Structure to design on (535 residues):
């Protein structure tokens, strides 16, 4: 149960350094349409200064949430009249895949992978990427640093008696708490730390859940909301009286209400694993953009949105071809909440105020490569670096949040004889990374890795990329759901029917949740357009 709970709870610029070998301590380089998606978009007619277009729906934001919303409208609801607008010159949002084919490297500088749930697999198949899917080894271990040693995390119940990450008393405390022998809920919204310590004990929190919070949210579990950030686990206690009670009740309900037959087109992943694409995560937004064609407009900056006198909304854009006006029956904002706040303030100051209060801490993705012989022998399995990666509790004296073994996780990420490591550093408990140089970030990562994974005498790493995201991941803090509801309610009070909020601060921060949220948003938009047609 401890392993299952931890897995459920664990279910993100600067110029590159040009792949040069640099001593980490020495070198530094300065570094007519039915739906429109506002973040980068497309329209059928060519734009010109003063041009006016119309759409049933505009999707504001061409990140993964916006693109998948447009794709879902087309494939699930027959709404092909969609416009997606993106302020940047490329689609995909924070998804950033970089390739050096001449050197044999391919890496990610934003999110690294996704859990292959059926909605994500459906989106991939509908986008023509079924044959490009790649899956990690479900048996590959995950590690947590504890007391100077990388210790495997239990992946199945049979592992529980043997893993050394927790003591026997800690395991007993977790088991009893999961059964319901623990203090009752306090009658208020709990943080992740409060919920886990109360239900499963200190060891589960400090050695499993705290590092997972760092890895998933780059967040502070003493401030993250259990209900908002890990709602599925929170609901187990809420509905069943305890974590195990809720699990049993969920299984019983599923047996009474079986799911419809699974789409036969979808591949069947083996076990609990993660997935990507042959040429990286960017294949998905690129494929959707190609499918939508001229409905995706890049380098379109939304400057204002107003309520139309004739129902719907008018959106004004600055584009490479000049000012463009779009008349839309519905709009979904999939851009970050702080951007949406500024745009929506003229419509509703209450909604804008609520949206402005979501917090996005900075995170840096540092990608380095070492020769295989640089890995400590005790970290090798059958002579190879195997596993998903490692997480580092804040109490263990390292600055890096975690390290993904990119070259072990998916094929063709690094040349023979090299290992590729993606490291995340920063987050809510270390916002000072924004003032560090690229070389200082690399040095911090290299210093940490030499404490547990890399030989202390190994050569300096080959630095492939350092990407700093100043506002990286929205934090689902205590009160998050109340703020989100306040923003939606303010729009409702203002009479802004057909204006929807979407994106990762609404659906969840994991890539899979963004896709699932896109399907949910598409259903809401389709329902609205159906009602709109009869008004």
């Amino acid at each position: 149960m401890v392993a299952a709970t931890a897995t459920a709870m664990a279910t993100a610029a600067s110029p590159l350094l040009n792949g040069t070998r640099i001593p980490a301590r020495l070198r530094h380089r300065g570094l007519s349409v039915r739906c429109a998606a506002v973040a980068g978009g497309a329209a059928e007619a060519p734009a010109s200064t003063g041009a006016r277009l119309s759409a049933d729906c505009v999707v504001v934001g061409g990140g993964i949430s916006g693109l998948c919303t447009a794709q879902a409208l087309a494939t699930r609801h027959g709404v092909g009249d969609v416009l997606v607008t993106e302020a940047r010159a490329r689609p995909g949002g924070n998804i950033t895949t970089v390739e050096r084919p001449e050197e044999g490297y391919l890496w990610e500088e934003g999110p690294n992978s996704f859990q292959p749930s059926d909605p994500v697999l459906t989106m991939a198949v509908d986008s023509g990427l079924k044959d490009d899917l790649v899956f990690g080894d479900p048996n590959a271990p995950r590690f947590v640093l504890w007391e100077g040693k990388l210790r495997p995390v239990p992946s199945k119940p049979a592992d529980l008696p043997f893993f050394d990450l927790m003591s026997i008393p800690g395991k007993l405390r977790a088991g009893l708490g999961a059964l319901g022998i623990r203090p009752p809920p306090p009658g208020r919204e709990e943080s992740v730390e409060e919920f886990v310590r109360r239900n499963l004990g200190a060891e589960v929190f400090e050695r499993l859940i705290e590092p997972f919070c760092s890895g998933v949210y780059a967040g502070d579990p003493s401030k993250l909301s259990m209900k908002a950030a890990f709602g599925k686990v929170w609901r187990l206690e809420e509905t069943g009286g305890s974590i195990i009670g809720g699990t049993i009740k969920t299984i019983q309900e599923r047996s009474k209400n079986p799911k419809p037959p699974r789409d036969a087109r979808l591949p069947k992943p083996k076990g609990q694993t993660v997935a990507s694409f042959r040429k990286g995560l960017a294949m998905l937004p690129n494929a959707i953009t190609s499918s939508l064609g001229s409905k995706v407009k890049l380098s379109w900056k939304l400057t204002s949105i107003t309520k139309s006198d004739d129902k719907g909304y008018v959106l004004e854009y600055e584009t490479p071809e000049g000012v463009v006006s779009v008349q839309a029956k519905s709009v979904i904002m999939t851009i970050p909440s702080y951007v949406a706040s500024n745009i929506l303030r003229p419509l509703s100051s209450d909604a804008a105020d609520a949206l402005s209060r979501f917090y996005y801490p900075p995170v840096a993705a540092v990608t380095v490569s070492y020769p295989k012989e640089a890995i400590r022998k005790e970290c090798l399995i059958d002579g190879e670096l195997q596993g998903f990666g490692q997480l580092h509790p804040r109490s263990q004296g390292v600055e890096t949040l975690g390290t993904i073994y990119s070259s072990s996780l998916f094929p063709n990420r690094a040349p023979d004889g090299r290992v590729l490591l993606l490291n995340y550093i920063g987050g809510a408990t270390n916002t000072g990374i924004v003032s560090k140089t690229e070389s200082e970030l690399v040095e911090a990562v290299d210093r940490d890795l030499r404490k547990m994974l890399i030989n202390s005498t190994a050569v300096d790493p080959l630095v492939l990329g350092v990407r700093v995201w100043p506002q990286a991941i929205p934090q689902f803090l205590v009160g998050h759901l109340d703020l989100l509801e306040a923003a939606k309610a303010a729009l409702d009070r203002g009479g802004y029917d057909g204006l929807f909020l979407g994106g990762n601060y609404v659906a969840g921060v994991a890539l899979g949740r963004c896709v699932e949220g896109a399907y949910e948003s598409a259903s809401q938009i389709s329902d609205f357009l159906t009602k709109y047609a009869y008004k």
Remarks:
- Residues 511-533 form the longest helix (23 residues).
